[in-house]
Write the structure tokens for this entry.
Amino acid sequence: MNKTIFYIILIFVLLLLSGCVHTQPKQAPSQTSTPSVSSMTHSNETATTSDEETQTSEEAGFLTGDKFKQNSDFVVKAFQISYDKAKNKLSYHIEYKLGADATAFLKNGKHKYYFRLEAPEKWHSFLTSSKSGEVQGAQLTGDLENIYSVDLVLSLHDGVTDQKIQEMVKDPYDYVLYLYENPEYPARMVGNVYGWMKNS
């Protein structure tokens, strides 16, 4: 009889123990710096990351997408293509304005910022690299009405015909422009930059 009671109590205790599963609450995923993206196509659709996913520039220590919440925070005023025959390169002259948040952050923190241009896929086979080299943006004065400029280049393979080069010079659509301080986290990315400029 005593053994029966002992086994019943033992089974009861084991059932209680097996039912008590200790679980820890899930931790919120650590916030990473995700760039705010404005990717414009011919249809001028925009895609931006949510505020919850975007780490602020102050937290990150470098320029991020939180300084470019509105399209007016980065405006392209000119996008011009020319051909340098001596160097066999396409040159891109871009004029731009920056908004108050980006200007204040870059100027007050003495941060440097950079541009890179990516060619449309249809031109990749004619170029030695689909992306330009990194070029530092102009030093900012703090005057929000100032228009700054940057010049980027893409090198052509030898043997590209004059007809193809002229076709490339006359077709400014579908280039992607990157603006960043940290190259791993573009603060601003504009797809079809020329089409976006014309429709802004």
Remarks:
- The helical segments are 2-19, 57-60, 100-108, 162-169, 193-199.
- The first strand starts at residue 38 and ends at 39.
- The two ends are 89 Å apart (CA to CA).
